[in-house]
């Protein structure tokens, strides 16, 4: 083969050079960026403390003190509500005076609060309203378990005192027909007393009247 023929022969391809190991690895997909941290939730504003009762010394309170003396206890105003504490033994005559002289002619509500560890244990609460003066007054009478009835002053006290007796067990001396009004007559206990265990219903009544072992 002549030199010219050798030149016309295609030269063999050079073998591919080995690539470094790093270059042989497949290219990894780019990882998504980590999500930005969520901004911290704004803390709700702190609740303002409820206003504290303030001493009350208006003309009505002064007239009550002048007439009933030490039977009138603390007098305060709480969120525009006038509140006067009255000794239970003079509650009836105080109510008669408030109706006849101060024109509180409506008993809007009568209920109680059980303080349990306090003595006297309960506060009987009377909410009064004067149409003539557009004025409200709350009376509190601390009692153990007996309170004078005010049914002779406001007829609506009849049903309200029965409910208070039914739920708290407070007896209203002088009430014309004090008996339960919400619970069955045979029910034992008074559900709104703080020592009344709601999980221990009157099992005898439930068994006898509902035919089951538990009211729960």
Could you please describe the fold and organization of this structure?
The chain is an alpha/beta fold and 216 residues long. The chain has a domain at 54-204: Beta Polymerase, domain 2. The chain is 23% helix and 22% strand. It contains six helices and eight strands; from the N terminus they run H-H-E-H-E-E-H-E-E-E-E-H-E-H. The chain has helices at residues 3-8, 21-24, 59-68, 91-100, 157-168, 203-210, and strands spanning 54-55, 72-78, 81-86, 106-114, 122-130, 135-143, 146-148, 171-173. The strands form two sheets. It has a six-stranded mixed beta sheet. The mean pLDDT is 88.
Q: How are the SSEs placed, and which strands pair?
A:
Elements: H1 3-8, H2 21-24, E1 54-55, H3 59-68, E2 72-78, E3 81-86, H4 91-100, E4 106-114, E5 122-130, E6 135-143, E7 146-148, H5 157-168, E8 171-173, H6 203-210
Parallel strand pairs: 3-6, 7-8
Antiparallel strand pairs: 1-2, 2-3, 4-5, 5-6
List the main descriptive attributes of the protein structure presented here.
alpha/beta; Beta Polymerase, domain 2; six-stranded mixed sheet; two-stranded parallel sheet; flat
